[in-house]
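pinning this so it doesn't scroll away 📌
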Amino acid sequence: MRFGNAIKEVSTIGRYRLRSVFEDGYVGEIDLAPLFENPRGPLTADFKDPALFAKAYVDHRAVAWPNGYDIDPDVLRYYCETGRVCSYEELAAVFEQPELSPMTLNDKQKS
């Protein structure tokens, strides 16, 4: 959690839609279908069963599922703020060189 985001509450609001309440009060909703409709590994392949997605819960301030899959809260916050699931390349650029991003994650100004 490089930017200090943390999930306080999570709920599912559709097949792959997630509503997350962050500890700073920010509430975001995001459609995570791009992560699960074209699985890239065994953990995401499990989400072909819609019942699994509905079992989302907060674990160590991140969103997690019973099969061991989780989403870093900084990444989830970025998805929510941009309104889409981003490519790995975009995430790497943002989180490895945050000065390139126009985002102010966790409502903190960059210095």
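📌 and the second one:
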Amino acid sequence: MTATPALDPRLAAAAAGNMVSARAKLPSTPAEKARAMAQDFESVFLNTMFQQMFAGVGGDGPMGGSGAVGMWRSFLTDEYAKTFAKNGGIGIADHVYRALIERQSAQSQGPAQPQKAL
């Protein structure tokens, strides 16, 4: 029979603390959610651009030119994109954010009432 490993109370407390702090960082207002969505959009765009930038790069490199290079490079470009978007990006997130806020305000006002002809 195999013994089940005992749960260390310190690990459980640390995991619970991490979950609580992560939950506290979640966007709660519509404006915060719109900002987070805009940054995510810019991150995806930047990731695509970075992947294209590295597409022609070959060679032996630190991974020996194996299939691991492609996997590692995809993680690298994803982290580059997230970091760029989080630190201001190239301005796409600001435009997307303004468009989302405008759309939200237009939807909250409801459809425009047609004016009567005189």
